[in-house]
Amino acid sequence: MIKLGYVKEDGYFKETFYLNTNFLTRHICIFGTTGSGKSTTLSIIAYELNKLGIPVIIFDRTGEYTSRLKKWSYTIIPGYNYYASPFGIWHDLEIEERVQNEIWLLNEYCRITWNEQLSPLQIRLLTESLLNIYRRGHNPNFDNIVKECRKIIEHELKIWYESAEAIASRFQIFTVGKFKKAFLDISNSKPKLISNLRGINILDLSVFENDEPKNMLSLIAATSIYLEIKRAGFSKKVRLVLAIDEAQNLINKNEKYSILEKMSMELRKYGLSLILVSPRPSNLSENILSNCGTFISHQILSSYDIDMIKKHAYSTNFKYSLENVLYSLNCGEAFIRTLDELEGRIIKIGTEEHESIIH
Length: 359
Hints:
By secondary structure, the chain is α/β, with parallel strands linked by helices. It contains 13 helices and 11 strands.
């Protein structure tokens, strides 16, 4: 059981509240306005999971968890002890199938970063470039892909000039400085991301100032975890808890079956638990919300978002008063609906044991 805080009844905080680990693979969503306590809640859950021997990996976009959980965690730093190339994930497939998957990942990156996908011409040009590089016996990277695209239009298809420049503008950032170093392909020597994970592991994305590398690295890491978990086979035990802060950055609501949707729908039987943290439930897709068993909602001020909570975390106890409850929650308090507490309860997050995490 995960000790999370105290139940609020009649204005007083009484019995200790626990999350049941049996429902971890039914996934958890944490919502709330800025400063309402989302990060504290995730930090306490990670701390408690560590006590239970369940490995956790947190995608940390701001560096907050790296600092808050420093005493109990191992930090994964892109370009230092972790390298993530989109061209080193499907190394066991035939070249043509491998290229198709790599194009999918690049397209997914464009969708979540700019809300637009690669054009058919850009896909054709990228496909030709990747195939040419592989057929020469080389490993692709962003640098040689951009160069290959320009080489193709220079010698063969000048009408694709605009597409080549669009590709360069999308991916040029990954060809310079620390970005180039972080996205190197060293697939022959790097360990798998989740192999032998123990305790709390924090993927520190705050080493990047821009959203583009944060999105790309998150997408590569999430896809790698998805494939590794599937290859490991079915599991009745929780194999890994993947927690993603600011999860809305990895979701395009106009697109079906994003990597997070696929995880939420497919990987429960493989022992993966998802914890998604976002300011607003409306930032996440219907598929993700429908596959979430535990809702932890800190203060929410938007009536539209409150309606989303009511729709997916229905509670007869608070049927007519949930708006007032969510409006009036204090910092560090949350409305929690779980599969064994379907009516929902108001919880003060944290106990005396968690003081060093809260402050």
